[in-house]
Amino acid sequence: MSGPQPDPVPSPADRSAGPADARSDADLLTSDQTLADLRQLIERYPEPRSALLPMLHLVQSVEGRVSSQGVELCAQLLGLTAAQVAGVATFYTMYKRRPAGRHHIGVCTTALCAVMGGDAVLAAVQRRLGVEPEQTTADGLFSLERVECNAACDFAPVMMVNWEFMDNMTPAKAEALLDDLAAGREVQSSRGATITSWREAERVLAGFPDGRADQGPSAGPASLSGVELSLKSGWTADAFPPPDQPTAGGESR
Amino acid sequence: MTVAPADNLVTVTIDGVEVAVPKGTLVIRAAEQAGVAIPRFCDHPLLEPVGACRQCLVEIPDAGNGRGFPKPQPSCTMTVADGMRVETQQTSEPAARAQRDVLELMLINHPLDCPICDKGGECPLQNQALEHGRGQSRYDGVKRTYAKPIPLSPQLLLDRERCVLCARCTRFAEQISGDPLIGLLERGAKQQIGAFDGVPYNSYFSGNVVQICPVGAITSQAYRFAARPFDLVSTVTTCEHCAAGCQLRVDHRHYEVKRRQAGDDPAANQEWSCDVGRFAFASARGDDRLTRPLRRGPDGLEPAAWPDAIDAVAAALSRAQGRVGLQTGGRLTLETALSYARFAHAVLGTADVDFRARPQSPEEAQFLAAAVAGRGPGQAVSYADLDRARRVVLVGFEPEDESPIVFLRLRRAVLRHGLKVQVVAPLLSPGSRKLSAQLIPAPPGAEAAALAGLEGLDADCVILVGERLAGSPGALSALLAVARSSAAAWAWIPRRAGELAALEAGLLPGLLPGGRPWDDPGARAQLAAAWGIENWPPAPGRSAVEQFQAVLDGQLSVLVLGGLELADLPDPALARRAIEKADFVLSLEQRRSEIAQLADVVLPVGLLEETSGTFIDWQRRFRPVAQVVDRPRSGLTEIRLLSVLAQALGSDLGWRDAAGAAAAWDGLPAWTGPSPAPPAVPVPAADRSAAAGAGLRLASWRELIDDSRRLDRADELAASARPVAVRLSPATAARLGLDRPGAGPVELVGPAGSARFDLVLDSSLVDDVVWAPARAPGDRSLAGLGLAPGDPVRLSSGGDQ
Amino acid sequence: MTQPLVPVLTANWGQERSWKLDSYVAQGGYRALRLALGRSAAEVMAEVKDAQLRGRGGAGFPTGLKWSFVPQDNPNPKYLVVNGDESEPGTCKDVPLLMASPHTLVEGVIISAYAIGAHTAFIYVRGEVLHPIRRVRQAVEEAYAAGYLGRDVLGSGFDLDIIVHAGAGAYICGEETALLNSLEGRRGQPRLRPPFPAVAGLYASPTVINNVESIASVPAIIARGKDWFTSMGTEKSKGFTIYSLSGHVAHPGQYEAPLGLTMARLLELAGGVRAGHQLKFFTPGGSSTPILTAEHLDTRLDYEGLAEVGTMLGTKAMQIFDETTSVVRTTLRWVEFYKHESCGKCTPCREGTWWLVQLLHKLEAGQGQDGDVDKLLSVCDDITGKTFCTLAEGAVACVTSAVRHFRSEFEVGYTTPAWEHLPYDASALFPVESEGGRA
After folding, report:
1. Considering the entire predicted model, what is its pTM?
2. Are B485 and B471 in contact (CB under 8 A)?
3. What is the ipTM of this complex?
4. Which residues on chain A are in Cβ contact (under 8 Å) with C227?
5. C340 to chain B: nearest residue by CA?
């Protein structure tokens, strides 16, 4: 899409063999269903171009990445140039230009997760999968990414599977999780639904619900630290205003 | 520039200098008026501010409200306020430091390849670094590197590691020309400019991004490694490619032009040019350049000595006794055109002169004589009027193809002032779409009716028409009628740079120099007195087409043809027959051409870059053409040559060079007599054959980049042409059975032949009309097929027959 | 002394199916909406303004004041955009709210949109949080079905549509003008101001952009009144907020409290630093806020208290690190974050973070040279105050505050790798088998 990557350190070659059904993905992209879905996304917004981010999510849910063809399709539907769409597709890290795996694994290694053990989790995942970040396993089952802070610091170290939370990771838990996924066993997110696939997740992100909103807990244990302490201690919102403070109208400025 | 009323002015103090500037002025612009140059990279006066490079930081100790900004502020995004105090790098150490800091960061990833960079020697970043940078970098890390260079288009190359991400190029593409085919890609430290794979940045205006790139990141194939800026000699002149009147800066070295850049003319091209103006300047550098006279002998054209050739021409012209037709094309300066006019009227004694190497009509000649000729800038529409207009209607005129700077100015007015553009045309072209134009659908031939039907016109409206209206009966008459009744302004914008000068010089049948009607005895008497003309021919002269016919009818015996291409003529077959039949044909040419090959004598003439003169742009401004190189390869300018011929004929042209011609022009008294009557061709009745299903009609115009010979030796430019295709509405394609997917090319059939084209379905197109480019490469000229716009035409599936 | 915590937004998070409409309504949900619709938009706006609610997304700008900047005579549609792009390292409060009680936000959106006269609202949620997005979408659907959204909300004559929009991975979209670009389908790069979004924001129309927590706080303010709200907090930092504790703390998580308690108190509520260890440093409001150390434990955690010690309340995200932690390592990772998330638009941020990362890499690897710490500070000086937006200021704040408190530890990097100086294994929450201590 944009020529060679500018990293000063040459990145290792992509070991992905790519999906065997790449051709059928391309056909799916221009299927009536996909076109209808893309048009529906456009309809949802006051101005068509606003649909571009969801459209790109949908494109990669269909073809497993955002290909040149996907870029051109979005451009055509929105009356943009391919360069304009490519500018957007390459700006956001969630859009994958090389085929992602059936499961997309993200390990947070921003400062806090890294220190709490995220680096060790990432090392374990790399060992188990035999790939580096930004690569996909040869069997197309897993792709790996070093993610930046995923807003779950109270559950550090955190790993994402298809953008579902896997909280309080350890290398051992991560390896077991990968084994379960590889074996096709049912895996439950710590604070989310049962794991489906990255493509299905991308379809939900695009704006087509998968009916799994009611799965999983309301919150993880850490999210409840404060409120449980309050419950235990009898602290409520009704305690305000506290007795030593005047109520409405009594104040002088 | 308009002077702002005083109550719209604010006073700011910049480095102690007080200036009054209009409200809303950016600090960086106000500083320019105070004589302070603040360094900048992303800032460009014609682009929207972006504040990206941060090089222009200044201190603002008082924002006009008594309070200052705690941190340096970008002067390219901040507008002035009354009472504001600004301290730039010249007076403020914090400002100077901020600029040094930003410069240091800008340079950490910039390569040290100035010695091999095209921009070296004229590079704002290099200058800034030399003036204000550290002698030695503190950066010892890894520099960003990229594969280099990568093509953005056939014409442009990008060296990404030189790029400072100022986004001037991408903003130009989006904001000015409306071709966002390049953009910012990636993010953060990896952010880079790029085009989409397989979609090159082919824009008629792409070369501007080379010029506005503040570093050497974008270079042109044409100029890459061709010269060092300090070895070039620059000349400011006027572009010869169209009637837009662009100022150019032409750089040459060793008597060869190396590059051309847009000059800065706020009243015309501002700081832009089209790619033809920029890159099409080497067409005469091929083996076909004529440097010696040629004379037809037993074995065809052979080199001849100048005296022999001149004698042969003089003998033939004497024999003709005035039965000479003279055609000059539309690319001459006023001085050269005037020389031809005097040569015709005073030396040859013929009135058969015409500059129109293109479709033409008697109605048009009448229109030009009555309503266009003899008018100065004060009596004509200008670019500024387009900025001010509420509504502009385009008729028979496709500005992006036919006058690109008019297109840019219209687009600017659309985006900045909410100008509404309407276009009377059979389809919405790419240019019309970029103007957000409203289509007033009109099949070819229906322009007159559409003009007559325009509603709501007033003095805030401008109608722009092109030379193509000559081919649409009644249209020019309708234009004058509707302008008269509505007070709308109008302008006729020809494609070629020399048409208005030729018109003023009187190279049109029925017209004499200065807008004098041939029919008016007083006009003739004035000219006769000035030029010593003793005898006038009995009739006011023939048009170009009539001249060819007259040769075939035996009424004319000699043709003098300068700068003409057969393929440009409305009826190339007729012209060829006439040229072959004429007793004698003199061709005055820079290069061998089809016509030159048929001539009896060919006299080489100099290039425009070897002479000086004046063009008249569509605004009727006289624009200077400067001599760029002073070593003409042919030895003679056209004016000198005409003067030599006059002498050989025992006569006198009256001058020998452009200065003499210009003095003669200035000496002609202004014509104050009556103008000829305007044309009054009625609006044609609705065309019966336009009824649905009756047949196809042809619509066409010349695209900016086509197979014109002026683009020769600019191969990259030619490669950036639009894809060649004919267009049909989906309904018409269905009716013709041409709409099935993958149907392949179609065959466009005219009376003189057929040609193959790709087919594009265009839902904006009027039904039962096929649009085709007039001069597609590969022998697909529509005139060559015997076709003109409005003609019935057949289209068949490419697989037929 | 009043109670240190106050469950308002978090109150229902632990309840059975808290994310469902019926559960929310059973807890008194949408009562505030009915109250608001019974009052004029101006009255609702005044209530929020008088409550002195300040933006909870980092900048702390008064929410009601922001609303009042919307020119009501502007003929264009008005838009409300909720900023749920929660991405600031350490910040993890909006995501649990979206997951556990999305209706709190939806109700807040409806009331806020009513107040500013918007008929279309957007909830922009970062894309990398799938389940919260599911929950918010479902909540919006439920609200439509119940008549809280769509035409004629609850018979009030007020129309409102909510569009839930997933981002696609870009921290910078938390910056409000970058978010607008993103929502318009463009690269998420910040826009010039002026024009300000309140005047020309989304689609060049008047637009209010508020953080999830800010908007979610509105129903409680309407239901309980501004006096209830202002009775909490400190003089200029009114009300309650969610503090997020993470890292080397016994009980990390979300602690909702009146503004202004001290770090010492908050840490005590969270069970203190993990057993057997001592506090080394912490961020008060996400990684973009200069770090503090144990000497600042008595600082009030409100806008003013933290400003007094040279830092900011930010997103109230306390990342707590104990004495095992290499500050060089954390600083590098944070700066790498800013480099990764720099949008690339302006020179100082794009190039400056590139340079800082390289210098910090050398120091982490023990390959620094004498003077590199000063160079680090000097590059920070090159950057600061010159950038288009404040993203790079976060990177600068990390570095300068870390060097201020732990300069000698950076200087160790002239000779010794950070992982040898402070073996990384010791910081992990689990035993690590590693090579050379470099986990």
Report:
1. 0.95
2. no
3. 0.96
4. 241, 247-248
5. B188
